[in-house]
DNA sequence: CGTTTGATTGACCCCACTCAAACGTGGTGG
DNA sequence: CCACCACGTTTGAGTGGGGTCAATCAAACG
């Protein structure tokens, strides 16, 4: 509420070149020259507060977005009103790609906590693509990544038990923490249990019970939304993510 | 086995311009000039026989593909060996986009019946993209479509009951038949029950029972893989795909 | 024809959902 | 500072949808 220190947002803008997420985000593998061109069209918006939305299902797709800090969930809604969370997005991840289908978003993006977002306006992106083959390739790579990620998600919802799902979920988070050079065996989930459950296609109670179960078994440590992973190998075994060795001599 | 009539494959090639699937497939909305350029790099392979694969999980992504006739399933495999079918692909649909992530396919494509496939080699596609902004846009559109389609799939696997899933599945097929100007209330499923069940995240027995149930209720007619839809509205109601009217005064 | 593969049907059971209540925990106002 | 409420989370008890197992049936194939 106090405005003792007026802030010039332009001064706060971090160039892609200087951004610590460079290697995870859009500029991954791009030349310095290309990166500087990209940087010119990137807009850093006002931070998005908790529960505020970046775009809604049906909105015109004005831009694609990169999470710079905080976290965002995207969800699709069905006719009868219930929604399915399709992803939780951490810094460096790109969202809004569904908008390329027909110029309208087919899902909704909401901040799980206060988050800063970089926007890449559609028109300027398309314009830049025309003269920049590297950027085109990047687009395809990012979209291909999303498609592959959703295949993995389908596998989870279609074939895994509740136990395997939560274990997979935790391992996925742990891996993404590691990619960001954060502690990978101790992290805070920014979403409520309800959202975890929704994402995994389970009831809240089931998620709660599984957390308790894992903790009793000494595999993880849970304090509210703070998660500590104590026994990664056992977690992997629960997730079914065990390597060829075991499976080989089972046959 | 008999080679009485040697066939020159080149003579069989149908140009994109002459293809009846033009409006559904890659060239949708492209100018005649652009289409002719695209046509130059499209390769029409030998037909793929039933159960033959177009590419495997892990293969180098050499091309993206369009189904020209027949049908293809794509599936992702988990560590513990079970697979999830991620899509059934009809003529005019594009597959292999997952290969853009890192140059390797992350799923497997197998023909459900004898099928002809058009291949667009990666290298030449990327080359052509550089000089053809329309093609770039097309790529984004096609990939955006795939992402949106998978969101719908996640919603199904995450939130729907068995009954809703099969109803949604049948309606989706019906709609795609209509897009192709084929009979939309009478069609043949090219995949076995096992594959339907796998795709929907259900057991074969459940699918079989549901078919029987729908038939007893007079909603559909089932003869082996031949499906007739008798009461679309009731099927929509089962799928949860009812429009705002009903839901409005339910509240 | 027998054989094989795919589909159906029935009996049984279990995992995860639902309903319900208790339990922190954090925010708010007196 | 504490009492209060609201919300998210946990825990328990009971149930049902859909999975599993097993047998039968039908069609396709050699």
Secondary structure blueprint with pairings:
The structure is a homodimer of 251-residue chains.
Chain A: H1 9-12, H2 32-41, E1 43-44, E2 53-55, E3 63-69, E4 72-77, E5 83-89, E6 94-95, E7 108-111, E8 116-121, H3 122-131, H4 133-159, H5 162-179, E9 186-188, H6 193-200, H7 204-216, E10 220-223, E11 226-229, H8 232-239, H9 244-248
Antiparallel strand pairs in A: 1-8, 2-7, 3-6, 3-8, 4-5, 4-7, 9-11, 10-11
Chain B binds a DNA duplex (30 and 30 nucleotides) through residues 161-162, 192-194, 202-209, 211-212, 224.
Features:
homodimer; Jelly Rolls; Arc Repressor Mutant, subunit A; 2 domains; DNA-binding; disordered C terminus; globular; 251 residues
| Distance linking N and C termini of chain A | 66 Å
How is the largest sheet of chain A built, in terms of strand order? Answer: 1-8-3-6
Q: Please state the second-level CATH architecture of the largest domain in chain A.
A: Sandwich
Helix content of chain A: 40-55%
Count of individual beta strands of chain A: 11
The CATH superfamily title of the largest domain in chain A: Jelly Rolls
Shape of chain A: globular
Biggest interface and which pair forms it? A-B, 50 and 51 residues
Q: Give Rg of chain A in angstroms.
A: 20 Å
CATH topology of the largest domain in chain A: Jelly Rolls
What structural category arises from helix and sheet content of chain A? alpha+beta
Count of discrete structural domains of chain A: 2
* Percentage of residues in DSSP E strands of chain A: 15-25%
Q: How would a textbook summarize the main sheet of chain A?
A: 4 strands, antiparallel
Q: H/E order of the elements of chain A?
A: HHEEEEEEEEHHHEHHEEHH
* Oligomerization: homodimer
CATH class of the largest domain in chain A reads Mainly Beta
Query: What would the average pLDDT of chain A be, to the nearest integer?
Result: 90
How many helices of chain A? 9
């Amino acid at each position: 509420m106090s405005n003792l220190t007026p802030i010039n947002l332009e001064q706060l803008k971090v160039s892609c070149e200087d951004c610590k997420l460079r290697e995870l985000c859009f500029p991954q593998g791009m030349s310095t020259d290309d990166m500087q061109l990209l940087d010119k069209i990137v807009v850093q918006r006002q931070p998005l507060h908790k529960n505020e939305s970046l775009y809604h299902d049906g909105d015109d797709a004005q831009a694609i977005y990169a999470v710079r800090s905080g976290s965002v969930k995207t969800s699709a809604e069905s006719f009868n009103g219930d929604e399915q969370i399709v992803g939780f997005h951490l810094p460096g991840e790109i969202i809004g790609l569904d908008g390329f289908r027909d110029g309208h978003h087919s899902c909704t993006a909401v901040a799980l906590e206060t988050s800063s977002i970089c926007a890449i306006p559609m028109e300027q992106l398309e314009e830049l693509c025309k003269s920049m083959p590297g950027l085109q390739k990047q687009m395809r790579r990012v979209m291909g990544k999303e498609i592959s990620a959703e295949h993995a998600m389908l596998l989870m919802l279609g074939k895994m038990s509740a136990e395997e799902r939560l274990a997979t979920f935790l391992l996925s988070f742990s891996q993404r923490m590691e990619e960001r050079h954060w502690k990978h065996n101790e992290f805070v989930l920014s979403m409520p249990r309800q959202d975890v459950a929704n994402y995994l296609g389970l009831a809240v109670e089931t998620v709660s019970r599984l957390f308790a179960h894992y903790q009793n078994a000494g595999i993880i440590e849970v304090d509210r939304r703070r998660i500590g992973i104590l026994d990664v190998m056992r977690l992997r075994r629960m997730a079914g993510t065990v390597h060829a060795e075991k499976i080989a001599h089972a046959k």
